[in-house]
Automatic annotation (TrEMBL):
Family per similarity comment: Belongs to the FliP/MopC/SpaP family.
Membrane topology: Multi-pass membrane protein
Species of the source: Silvibacterium dinghuense
Cross-referenced PROSITE patterns: FLIP_2
One GO cellular component term: plasma membrane
Function noted in UniProt: Plays a role in the flagellum-specific transport system.
Protein name listed in UniProt: Flagellar biosynthetic protein FliP
Membrane spanning residue stretches: 29-60, 171-195, 207-226
Pfam families in alphabetical order: FliP
Length: 229
């Protein structure tokens, strides 16, 4: 799914860049697109909401006890589509500030990159926690900035990933609690009636799935995750 998105992005960017007036810009455009294709999976996983979404989805699967259902590919696809939906305003800003001027030949490639990273940097800065930013600012031996907006991308990106991992684990822990309560109740009941030959998880798993489906769990989870951004 990520490779398909990368191919789609490349096919979108390449025609936009070819009409440049300078004939030497074509090899640079090809180099830029190939570099983008190589780095795109890492960019998607580190600079979008995909980190938080994948963590929450895997916590949900463990809480339900379904092991491999939904599969990793399904969860990855859902997280990718939701990330694309959430990142639409940022992508629009990148297109207006960097891609469109570069296509028209108003700016060169380096200037397009500088302009293009600004909207994602400001987006990540919005969700990066102060303590995470402080860790990487100190590790980079940078002076304390007058405002968070002055921090470079090499500080904001890893701080954003740490903050998203923490947020994902917090949501996953809260999501895990009601299913854990069902497991405890079923284990207590089966033990009290002397049903030792049947593992409690065999009974609790279908009950948890039934409860999740009856509560329209996927809809509630998706809505809550979208509102968290």
């Amino acid at each position: 799914m990520i490779l398909a998105a990368a191919a789609s992005s490349a096919s979108h960017l390449l025609p936009l860049s070819l009409p440049a007036t300078d004939s030497h810009s074509v090899p640079w455009t090809v180099l830029f697109v190939l570099t983008l294709l190589t780095l795109l999976p890492a960019i998607v996983l580190s600079m979008t909401p995909m980190v938080r979404l994948l963590v929450v989805f895997h916590f949900l699967r463990q809480a339900l006890g379904t092991q491999t259902a939904p599969s990793n590919q399904v969860l990855m696809g859902l997280a990718l589509l939701m990330s694309w939906f959430l990142m639409q305003p940022v992508l629009h800003q990148v297109d207006q500030q960097a891609v469109e001027p570069f296509r028209l030949g108003q700016i060169d490639g380096w200037e397009a990159i500088k302009r293009g990273v600004e909207p994602p940097r400001l987006y990540m800065l919005r969700y990066a926690k102060e303590q995470d930013l402080a860790i990487f600012t100190s590790a980079a031996a940078l002076p304390r900035p007058a405002r968070p907006e002055d921090l470079p991308l090499r500080v904001v990106a890893p701080a954003y990933m740490l903050s998203e991992l923490k947020a994902g684990f917090e949501i996953g822990a809260i999501l895990f609690l009601p299913f854990l309560l069902i497991d405890m109740i079923i284990a207590s009941i089966t033990t009290s009636v002397g049903m030792f030959q049947l593992p409690p998880v065999v009974i609790s798993t279908p009950l948890k799935i039934l409860l999740f489906v009856m509560a329209n769990g996927w809809n509630l989870l998706a809505g809550s995750l979208l509102k968290s951004f």
